[in-house]
């Protein structure tokens, strides 16, 4: 969909002020302007036949959270009884009432039942209509538009109406105001150079330099000795797998389980370097030398080896070296998403693991998501195969170290995607996202200059806080970053019962704060209210939504500073919540292994359990997440919008989750 519901709402308000439309139709969607590069040409040839598609509203979305709670809340009798994809499709399919009401309307306009086909996903009614029929049904006029550069035609209208009593049953109608035609550019070089001039045009999240990638890349010549004791004595300067095992008290794994799985998502052109994996394994996981992730290539996803630098390899090398080491010999699945030309977005990935998401609520947004088959066909690396809709299965834990600012996307787009995470939770998948690396500011340190969803960004020294998405979706687990306190020996600290960690304030600051889009979920309501009561922040509504009614993040944190990572043939120090998320994902994968071995299900959506049992996390109480010209929020006892509930304590987490369902 090309525009947000808020624009539609504005259109409706404007309409309400004007004279009411005749008969019982009411305006359903309206576009305020034709997208750039499209010109209105002619009225449509009356003999044309239009392939009409009516998207029906999904039912039961408001029930979704109750269902997810049933399978993920510790006190529920149905804890762990996850759903199959088929059960999910049925539960959210449009109601019979919607199908019947829309069919009755079509019949009354002369489109009889036998001309109508219901899609397999159950959410679309499809039929061919003459222009007269379509215009009468929707009280609109169709025109032909032409693409300036390619001459490609597209049939569209500027607004359309449906009978008022059907408003709640009809989600959208195609073709109408949408311009998601797959444009075949004539001159790709000019198109691509435009993308390079205006990075905003290119929306792939894997673009080098995009703010959610990890920071650092400073080479470290040689590391301290090989003895474990010596290694652990320097965890304040060099984080290694053994440091993480010591901090969170989890063991070297020795088992692989066929039922278990762990997925890491990477967005092209980000890619791992095979020799980097071996270089890392040779030092930190000898038996894993030669191991590679299972590659699930989505929409032409390639592990490119042409562009080699920290900006292209740092993220994937970091994620895979740590995830593969910490869960070895358990295999790790690499979802590599997008081709070399367009890259991809989270929606492209979600389409691949759930075919019904490709069309759900109108499908992808071509202004945000990559289009496949790639229309940029004569550019090297364009993927010309079909879009991946389904066909890949979701692993039990999925960790993603990329993110947007909530402010970059429309609330409609975000809610649609967030519902999909709810469905993954119902299926027993733990979805982890890093919470961002700029404290209360957004990617690259941007802050929002004033209220409203259209407010511009400023240079980051003032303005409103800029929360990160999908971290603010209440159905994902948002992972923040900690660091070992400088000059701290973690072995001594742990032995004396002193917390060796604090919020990360080296190079990066843990992303955290409160959503401007998503309501406060009930599982964290007490924790968030307690924090506001006990540690009232010194900022007002001009800085963030302080209503105490919106989602707070992160949920949990893990170390995100000084990771020793092999990148492009040298060891570097790397920083970011990009490191924290795969580390937490590895620990959950070990817990899943223990549960699966005992015939239990995966841990699935962990937040309801986590907030009921904060005692299984190491509370982090020091450090802040500065940004937007402020010190940001402060860590504090209990949940806080810097480090969430704290870092993992594996023995306690394991004991808790083995007790459950
Ligand atoms: C990796 O191992 C080599 C050879 O034992 C050693 O010289 C080097 O310092 C190690 N590098 C790191 C980062 O531990
Ligand atoms: C990536 O490599 C290709 C081929 O060498 C080159 O044309 C392109 O400019 C490189 N891209 C970047 C961003 O360095
Ligand atoms: C794409 O094709 C056009 C027409 O054949 C050609 O002029 C242009 O140079 C090509 N662009 C690239 C990047 O190959
Ligand atoms: C950022 O913007 C503020 C307010 O407009 C200005 O005072 C400040 O000098 C700017 N800082 C930088 C580094 O550009
Ligand atoms: C803050 O969130 C609440 C709850 O969603 C909402 O009602 C309110 O309008 C928001 N405040 C601002 C300033 O956006």
From TrEMBL:
Residues that hold Ca(2+) according to the record: 619-620, 638, 640
Principal place of residence: secreted
EC class name: hydrolase
Identification of the protein by name: tripeptidyl-peptidase II
GO cellular component terms, semicolon-separated: extracellular region
Catalytic activity reported: Release of an N-terminal tripeptide from a polypeptide
Organism: Salinomyces thailandicus
Source domain of life: Eukaryota
Residue span of region Disordered: 188-210
Position of the signal peptide: 1-18
GO molecular function, one term: tripeptidyl-peptidase activity
Co-factor note (free text): Binds 1 Ca(2+) ion per subunit.
BP GO terms, sorted: proteolysis
Positions with biased composition (Basic and acidic residues): 188-200
Task of the protein: Secreted tripeptidyl-peptidase which degrades proteins at acidic pHs and is involved in virulence.
Active site: 315 (charge relay system), 319 (charge relay system), 578 (charge relay system)
E.C. designation(s): 3.4.14.10
